[in-house]
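BUG: 3D viewer hangs when loading the predicted structure for this chain

Environment: internal workstation, default settings.
Expected: structure renders.
Actual: progress bar stalls at 90%.

Input used:
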Amino acid sequence: MTMTGEEKANRLTRAPECLFRLGRFERTGMMTTARLLAKLKQG
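Structure tokens produced before the viewer hung:
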């Protein structure tokens, strides 16, 4: 498994290749869950 610094959603499947270049979303302690979910809907 590898991760990138890209903010992107991941689509996990049974294919081993889907575990490479996983995106992530930065969330500080100042960001509420509601704000994070709103950001995910935009992207």
